[in-house]
Amino acid sequence: RLFTQAAEQGWAQAQYNLGMCYLTGNGTAHDEVKAARLFRKAAKQGFTAAQFALGRCFAVGAGVVQDEEEAVKLYMQAAAPGYALAQFALGLCCVQGKGCVQDGEAAAKLFTQAAD
What we know:
Blueprint: H1 2-8, H2 12-24, H3 32-44, H4 48-60, H5 68-79, H6 84-96, H7 104-115
């Protein structure tokens, strides 16, 4: 209930946390659409964990239409300030050529950044 109140007031951390609850069904009904909506709200505020989470939603089609290029854009936003999970996920996209041009050199750089 507190996450819901804080999320409705626009707090990005609460929007992300509530989104994770909906995504996993932890303490609430499992609802990928609600999760993606909440991640989008938090991501628009620059919350890196939400940018990554929304990217994952787009990568696998959880609550949104699957769109690998949109996933890459969101991973890039989250990776720029050093979010390691996003750097790793973006590296995987580069290795596999999913949502971007296949680029082993870029992938290696991203993996190194994620590990640091």
